[in-house]
Amino acid sequence: MRDVSIRRIFLAWTVACVSLTLGCGSKLEGTYINATGQVAIEFKSGRAYLTMGVVTSPADYEVKGDKIIIKENKDDKEPIVLTRNGDGSIETPFGRMTKKRS
User: Fold this and answer.
1) pTM
2) Which of 3, 12, 42, 73 is the Cys-Cys partner for 49 at CB 3.0 to 4.6 Å?
3) pLDDT, tens digit, for every residue of 81-96?
């Protein structure tokens, strides 16, 4: 009897974790900045806006697990691959970026 309860708890916990991961994983919102404040990525309305200094470039992106793949709208550009950390920050080629608070 007790074994069945433990299985139900484990199953419920697993479903909740998977739901949270899938539900939050496909869309990002907000602005992430690096430690120097020189580079920012804003995720808004299904697009990514990369800002370096005073130049901003829009780009498409997709989320695959903990990876964010940013595809600039130029044929000669390789995609930029970012990694989402468990604490909500993002590892990027520009350093660790954290979400800017409003």
Assistant:
1) 0.70
2) 42
3) 999 999 999 999 999 9
Question: Can you give the three-state secondary structure of 18-87, one letter per residue?
Answer: HHHHHHHHCCCCEEEEECCCCEEEEEECCEEEEEECCEEEEEEEEEECCEEEEEECCCCCCCEEEEECCC
Tell me the domain boundaries of the chain.
28-99
Could you confirm whether domain 28-99 is CATH 2.40.128.290? yes
3-state secondary structure of 3: helix
CA–CA distances in Å: residue 33 to residues 50, 59, 85: 10, 17, 14
Q: Are 50 and 70 in contact (CB under 8 A)?
A: yes
